Amino acid sequence: MAIAVRELPPTRLSINISPNAGDVVRWAADERRAENIPSGLSFTSSAPVGFESCSLTLPRRPRLSYPDLERLSTVTVSGAGGEIAWEGRVENVPQTSGDTSGVSPEIVGWQAHLSDDKSVTALYVDRDLGNWIQKSSAGRSALYGAYFDVYQDHTVDPDMSTGLPAIHLHADGQWDTGVASEAWYDCGLGNTWESIYVDYSGFGLGGANFQGMITSYTSDAGSGALSSSDFVTVASPTGTLTYTPSATQRFCALQLLLAGVASGADIDRFLNFRRVAIWGNTGITKRGTAPDDGVYASDVIAHVLANFAPRLSFTRGTYGTIQTSGFTIPHLVFPDPTTAAEIVSAANRYHLNDWFVWEGPRPGVPTLYYHARGARGRNWRARVGPSQLAETGQAIENLWNGVIVRYQDVDGTTMSVGPTGSTRTNATSALLLDSDPDNAANRAGIRRWEVLDMGSVSTLAGATEVGRRFLIEARQFNTSGQAQIVGHCEDDRGIVHPAWKIRPGDTVVFTDAASTAPRRVIKTSYSDESKTNSIDLDAPPDALAALLERLQVVLVPLGL
Asked: Which of 321, 340, 188, 343 has the alpha carbon at shortest distance from 251?
């Protein structure tokens, strides 16, 4: 009987280094020049972010300058067939010495480009009434010349008719013509506003006397106001309005003013603006219907890449690298300098989708991929013994069947939403209750509820979605584990590959385990010397801390 011998695919790797100006240099075990033969090659990848770090040592002389060790040069690790195993850039070139001399460059994945620019600010949609400010001292001085006795600052108070938080503009007594009260919004240096939505109600308004107005300005002193045709007169006591000025400017003012003639009656007059949402001039599509509209994380990420991380490639559309997300984010604004990485993480907290910076259509074109879990990635299979599968097992500290989420309402008030049946929250939702009969807490008839604090402005829908994501992710804690794939691995079609091909976002089925359900790969660490790919499954060892960081929430200490 003939015996079929299957030759395993080669596992050898080579490295191409592409300086910013210069020829590509190859580092590999078969290079003729000893200085180009690396040792200790290893690299890691994780979910999210993709290619994470790479380390190696070259037999180079310390304190000498080498043209192929230029900072920000592209580093590409490839297999025998040219398939890319890892790609990144040189961050630094520290030098080591001892029994042998060598250079160990610090190499990171191109996801680091998302943190290069630390001066990023962005306004997508802002519903935080606390971000509306008083007029500047220069602007107030100009007003005081004519209206010193009548000008009043705005306040943020509950609307009397609905109880909703509102920007309250107030005027009492007899008035000369002009602005009586106003609230200002500053988009920040380099940002402008595109439109605003308000739900308003007033008292003592009408005709050519007291009116409500929305005005766009170029400065907080009140200069550069748009023409008089660009204001809105409130002739009826209540209504809704989406207003887009004729030009985009940095400052917006909600105003209560007396136009035409002086007032004769000595009575209180007020104007309340509720459900205020101001939109930045980003060009991204508004999703949903006012007043519950917002932005998609996928649109925000594409905007961030195009404007603040130009080295990262992406495509949109049905087969694009950025897939359209579904949840409408109600509030997303970054007034203080931050990074593109922080914006991506903040937008993704409502989804916890996969996002990776992998290789692009050709070497040196890193590409960001954003999609639902399971939408991309390979499927592998392995056996428990050879892979040394070690499972974390179930732990009581990671067992929950409900979650309460605390958040700040638009007026800064602390609000909360909890599972159905909760009596100590402002609202309840069945989405925050895990009714799975296989949940050990449910089988025992015990309430295991956690309390999360978003620590930021949100809406009821936004807080509920964060809590729902927490429960989904928490289920992964009890199936987390680690394994080691040595030499080669087999895909779900029986084709053998080098072990380094397993990446975060892939799944592994352990065919002889008690459970043969696919296990999600969330981190890999490959050593070329031992040909071993060490993988973390389902949740990292520090699973809870990692989850809270991704959701940007904190556990509320007991007793608070």
From this structure: 188
Q: What is the pTM of this model?
A: 0.90
Identity at 271, one-letter amino acid code = L
Task: List, for residues 105-134, the tens digit of each pLDDT value.
Answer: 999 999 999 999 999 999 999 999 999 998
Distance of CA 166 to the CA centre of its chain: 28
Residue indicated by tokens 């910076």 = 357
pLDDT in tens, 344-359: 999 999 998 999 999 9
544 sits in the region (left: phi over 0; alpha: psi -120 to 50; else beta) called alpha
Q: What is the DSSP letter of 286?
A: P
Q: Return the amino acid letter for 112.
A: A
* Element spanning 405, H or E: strand 402-408
Residues in contact with 153: Cβ distance below 8 Å, sequence separation at least 6, in sequence order: 134, 181
Beta bridge partners of 352: none
Handedness of CA 124, 130, 134, 136 (dihedral sign): negative
pLDDT tens figures, 213-253: 888 888 887 766 765 445 565 556 678 888 898 888 999 99
Q: Find the helix or strand (DSSP H, E) in which 454 lies.
A: strand 449-457
Element (H, E) at 467: helix 460-474
- Find out whether the peptide bond into 291 is cis, omega within 30 degrees of 0: yes
| Residue from 71, 80, 97, 92 nearest 17 by CA | 71
CB 331 within 8 A of CB 459: yes
In this structure, are strands 507-510 and 379-382 parallel, antiparallel, or unpaired?
A: parallel
The three-point CA angle 477-439-510 to 5° equals 50
In sequence order, what are the residues at sequence separation of 6 or more whose Cβ sits closer than 8 angstroms to the Cβ of residue 528? 13, 41, 42, 500
Rounded Cα gap, residues 284 and 303, in angstroms:
7
CA atoms within 13 A on the CB side of 128: 22
**9 Cβ contact partners less than 8 Å away, ≥ 6 residues apart:** 80, 488, 496, 497, 498
Q: What is the CB-side half-sphere exposure of residue 29 using CA atoms within 13 A?
A: 11
Bridge partners, 156 (sequence order): 167
| CA nearest neighbour of 159 among 56, 276, 78, 289 | 276
What type of residue sits at position 460? L
| Residue 163 to residue 161: CA distance in whole angstroms | 6
